[in-house]
Design a protein that fits this description.
Blueprint (H helix, E strand, L loop, with lengths): L8 E5 L5 E4 L4 E3 L3 E4 L14 E14 L7 E3 L6 E7 L12 E12 L6 H13 L7 E12 L5 E4 L7 E5 L5
Parallel strand pairs: 4-11
Antiparallel strand pairs: 1-2, 2-3, 5-8, 5-9, 6-7, 7-8, 10-11
Length: 175
Amino acid sequence: SMIYHRTAVTEVHGGARPRVETADGHAVRCGAVVVATNSPINDRFAIHTKQAPYTTYVIAARVPRGSVPRALYWDTLDPYHYVRLQHYPPQDGEQDLGSYDLLIVGGEDHKTGQADDQEARYQRLYQWAKERFPVENVEYRWSGQVMEPSDGLAFIGKNPTAEENVYIATGDSGH
């Protein structure tokens, strides 16, 4: 088996002998194709009409090293929050945070295009984290997009098109 990365796929062809075509003109033949993407690139309607894009917000704030047990946390609030801890070794030329880790706190999601209060969402993330963890300065912040399936369950398995040997993994709500 071979895994190709940093390779843009432009076409996926199923059948008895599937083929994947790349942006630089190469073709890869295989026994099966798994399209594991945020939103499938190989069909236009089968999955796209069954999930919706949501924008999620994230901050990374300093916490004293050892003050938060290493785990993956999330709550069931609406909007919900998720947390994980990241050891912070400084890279060349970056600020040394000393004896700190980064607490990555995300959530405050909304359907993409249906809100324009990003600053307030970042502030709510910080406030929520500050009430629960010994957070200090916010070092980074960003937003991303996740796909939410209409029934809350990820789509993992055979692609719902007529092509055989093409499988998908999408709609995992950011997990």
